[in-house]
Amino acid sequence: MRFDVVTLFPEMFSALTQWGITGRAYEQGLANINLWNPRDYCSDPRKTVDDRAYGGGPGMVMMAKPLEDTLFAIKAAHQSQNVASGPICLLAPQGEIFSQKIAKDILNYGNLTFICGRYEAVDQRFIDRNVDLQLSMGDFVVSGGELPAMTMMDAVIRLIPGALGDGDSAIQDSFMNGLLDYPHYTRPEIYENLSVPDVLLGGHHAKIADWRRQKSLELTLRLRPDLIKSARANGLLSKEDEQFLRTL
């Protein structure tokens, strides 16, 4: 999976390339992360990437030309490396809310360019001319697109075959089957007078699977009932699931 990231702060992405699961995937070549600073493609001595907004108002607006020139450089790199260019994604508050489904869609693209906005906004003409999709982490505002981009990239990289030590780990994550994950326990067997559920100690795999499915349904109904509705609408609940839900 290849990521090209347009950012004024490429140093921030060391959190992805040097640490944990994403760092190992980067070192192994499973995730190819390329960082592009628009200031490197400015022609003026001050490397100007922003200016005041027409019509007035607070804050600065990222200019179209430095961003567009950066995209030209990215596409040239793709051509020289015989790489097919993927969609161009702007991280923006008005974007579609990111989800596990979108993470899987991005993995299928094989190549994605993230535009990390800064300041008040990005010139709309750049968006209209170049951006294929817009994504957001939720209904809140952060200082730039770098943290959302890193979060989304982490979610995608986890799905790359070989990125996790155990391939089943990603399959069992929350949201992969439309529900929240079931509770997990480890040693000691008793902690502060709280015991691990007996079913997990018995070694009966079918009973353990049933218990985990029921706990997943129970937690989802209690904490995210909207996911139950979505799972039902998408045909992800079995007759046994529905029977158990009626007992809660």
TrEMBL record:
Q: Which GO terms describe its molecular function?
A: tRNA (guanine(37)-N1)-methyltransferase activity
* Entry binding sites for S-adenosyl-L-methionine: G117, M137, G138, D139, F140, V141, V142
Per the entry, what this protein does is:
Specifically methylates guanosine-37 in various tRNAs.
EC number(s)?
2.1.1.228
Where primarily located? cytoplasm
Q: Which gene encodes it?
A: trmD
This one is known as tRNA (guanine-N(1)-)-methyltransferase
UniProt KW keywords: Cytoplasm, Methyltransferase, S-adenosyl-L-methionine, Transferase, tRNA processing
Q: Which organism is it from?
A: Polynucleobacter duraquae
Q: Which GO terms describe its biological process?
A: tRNA N1-guanine methylation
- What Gene3D superfamilies does the record tag this protein with? 3.40.1280.10, tRNA(m1g37)methyltransferase, domain 2 (1.10.1270.20)
Ranges for domain tRNA methyltransferase TRMD/TRM10-type come to 1-229
